[in-house]
Amino acid sequence: MRGMRESVTAEPVTAEPVAVEPVAVEPAATEPVTTEPATAEPVTVEPVTTEPVATEPVTAVLPPAPGAEQYPALDFANSAIALPGGQFLDLLGTPATATRWLVEHDLAPAGAGLQEMCAAQLRSLREQVRALLASHVAQAPAPPGALSALNDALTRAPSAALLCWDPTRGLHRATAHPVTQIVDRALAVLAANAADLLTGSDAGCIAACGATPCNRYLLRTHARRHWCSTRCGDRVRAARAYARRTRSTKD
């Protein structure tokens, strides 16, 4: 029949599934990175060795003050020395130095060995002699304690010279002073010499050094000289010049 359409039966197309093989992606073999720890070499720091400043000991002792060679007691009083810069030198400060001082002044044999008690006795008498010198220079009364100490030292050694004999000298007189009485004899000799100095014809020449900080005593050889050494004299003159300049500046 015209106008009639034939029905077309369309069979469904069955698409066969495509088998897609999975692609096996092999993982990239990454070698493990072994990081070795950095070993820092130890730094050896050498210690800084600071050398100590070498301070020279006070060995340059001043020469004997005027009159000290004539009167051992004056040198004895000057055995404690005040030096510039706050330094202090004590020639009787130890048994060894005290022994050396006595030997050098023919007051002890070379082989003598003093103990601290003996050195302390010497230092004690020295302070009493200095006290008597200071009062004499200041024209003040003598300290009773210093007088007593000096008189006590005077009686420590026998004053009478004994009659002795030996193959070399034959008969002679000498004052006995056994080793156990070395210090007693030295104290007696120094005390007697100090008494002679303070009461003799040179007593009016005793003076204290005028240079600061010197603490020594001397016998004046000139009316205007009041210093015990050339070094102290230079300091006195420098101090006087400075005082004059200061006065002129103020005026």
Automatic annotation (TrEMBL):
<feature type="compositionally biased region" description="Low complexity">
    <location>
        <begin position="9"/>
        <end position="23"/>
    </location>
</feature>
<protein>
    <submittedName>
        <fullName>Conserved protein containing a Zn-ribbon-like motif, possibly RNA-binding</fullName>
    </submittedName>
</protein>
<dbReference type="Pfam" id="PF07336">
    <property type="entry name" value="ABATE"/>
</dbReference>
<dbReference type="InterPro" id="IPR023286">
    <property type="entry name" value="ABATE_dom_sf"/>
</dbReference>
<dbReference type="InterPro" id="IPR021005">
    <property type="entry name" value="Znf_CGNR"/>
</dbReference>
<dbReference type="InterPro" id="IPR010852">
    <property type="entry name" value="ABATE"/>
</dbReference>
<feature type="region of interest" description="Disordered">
    <location>
        <begin position="1"/>
        <end position="23"/>
    </location>
</feature>
<dbReference type="Pfam" id="PF11706">
    <property type="entry name" value="zf-CGNR"/>
</dbReference>
<feature type="domain" description="Zinc finger CGNR">
    <location>
        <begin position="207"/>
        <end position="245"/>
    </location>
</feature>
